[in-house]
């Protein structure tokens, strides 16, 4: 079933034209939750250049949307990347797996405020200019009551209180500027996919919805914002015994924690240190090209190899050049 389409008449998103035209993917009969998860993961990987761990994160977030009646908090899912990297197709595919999807084609925060409804999954394209506080408020029941100005039937205007708690999935060109939203969201950096972009209008989420009911949420509130964001998703991964993804989630939690410590302005030196420390927990040495990639993906910081080399030396790390390829080692 296609999601509802809502527009305020002010904005019509420009469709992204992929290099290869969309192809329809036949959906086989799904016999188990694991098959449904794997199929959804495969479809999302085809929709953009995201990797398997990012795709599973999106699917596990989709699972959570079916539990809005029992969750007190659901982190926004934010896909960001350059034009043509599959953000629109990613959201399109996700809309087939989430609970009660509502496509909100709006340009202004005022329009979005009027259209947000509780117990839905709001899907918003080109959300770079949308009020970020509105997305934060929607993500938690404790903050989801907002004041909205409405026109009276007898004329004039009145201020009423609306509950807008629900799931939110948006795409943007850049990560949010608001540090509060950054620390309360899950991020997916899209990349150009050289394969085919996939669209399917017959995907069903009944198996995923049924699977969601079996998940046990014993420890989904953590000791900080980072854990509050990731623990509900981790509960889904545990239910599926997805060890590889759980290891990925642990790394992402640590990266998000480091990102929180770095702060809103993302001072390059602190950003480099957080990425280096995160990688050195897994490896004895890390190529600077990988540090450069992670700085862009996780902190939206763009540095050259030479700049990273210099900052690593300032921070006290040892930088070696093996076969001409610089690597950083522990202090």
Tell me about this structure.
By secondary structure, the protein is an alpha/beta fold. It folds into 2 domains: 259 residues, Rossmann fold; 62 residues, Arc Repressor Mutant, subunit A. The protein is 40% helix and 18% strand. The protein contains 12 helices and 13 strands. The strands form 4 sheets. A 6-stranded parallel beta sheet has the order 1-4-5-8-3-9, covered by helices on one side. Strand 6 and strand 7 form a beta hairpin. Helix 1 runs antiparallel to helix 3 and helix 10 crosses helix 11. It is globular, with a radius of gyration of 21 Å. About 7% of the residues have low confidence.
User: What is the number of domains?
Assistant: 2
Shape type: globular
Q: Count of helices? A: 12
Return the CATH architecture of the largest domain: 3-Layer(aba) Sandwich
Main pleated-sheet profile: 6 strands, parallel
Beta content:
15-25%
Structural class: alpha/beta
Separation of termini? 55 Å
Low-confidence stretches: 6-27
Q: In the CATH hierarchy, what is the superfamily of the largest domain?
A: P-loop containing nucleotide triphosphate hydrolases
Radius of gyration: 21 Å
Query: What do the pLDDT scores average to?
Result: 80
State the name of the first-level CATH class of the largest domain: Alpha Beta
Give the helix proportion (percent range): 25-40%
Strand order of the largest sheet: 1-4-5-8-3-9
């Amino acid at each position: 079933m296609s999601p509802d389409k809502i527009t305020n008449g002010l904005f019509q998103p420009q469709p992204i034209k992929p290099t290869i035209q969309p192809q329809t993917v036949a959906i086989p009969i799904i016999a188990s939750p694991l098959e449904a998860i794997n199929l959804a993961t495969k479809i999302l990987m085809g929709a953009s250049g995201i990797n398997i761990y990012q795709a599973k994160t999106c699917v596990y977030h989709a699972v959570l949307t079916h539990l809005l009646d029992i969750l007190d908090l659901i982190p926004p899912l934010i896909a960001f990347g350059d034009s043509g990297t599959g953000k629109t197709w990613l959201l399109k595919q996700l809309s087939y797996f989430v609970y009660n999807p509502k496509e909100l084609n709006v340009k202004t925060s005022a329009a979005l405020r009027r259209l947000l409804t509780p117990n839905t999954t709001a899907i918003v394209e080109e959300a770079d200019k949308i009020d970020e506080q509105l997305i934060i408020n929607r993500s938690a029941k404790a903050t989801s009551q907002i004041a909205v100005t409405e026109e009276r039937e007898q004329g004039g205007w009145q201020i009423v209180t609306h509950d807008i708690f629900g799931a939110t999935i948006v795409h943007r060109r850049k990560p949010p500027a608001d540090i509060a939203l950054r620390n309360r969201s899950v991020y997916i950096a899209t990349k150009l996919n050289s394969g085919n972009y996939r669209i399917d209008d017959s995907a069903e989420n009944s198996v995923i919805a049924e699977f969601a009911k079996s998940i046990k949420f014993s420890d989904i509130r953590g000791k900080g914002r980072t854990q509050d964001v990731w623990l509900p998703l981790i509960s889904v991964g545990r239910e599926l015994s997805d060890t590889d993804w759980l290891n990925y989630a642990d790394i992402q939690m640590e990266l998000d924690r480091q990102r929180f410590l770095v702060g809103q302005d993302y001072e390059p030196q602190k950003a480099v240190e957080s990425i280096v420390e995160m990688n050195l927990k897994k490896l004895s040495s890390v190529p600077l090209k990988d540090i450069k990639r992670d700085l862009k993906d996780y902190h939206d910081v763009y540095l050259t190899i030479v700049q990273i080399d210099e900052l690593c030396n300032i921070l006290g790390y040892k930088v070696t050049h093996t076969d001409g390829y610089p690597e950083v080692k522990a202090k």
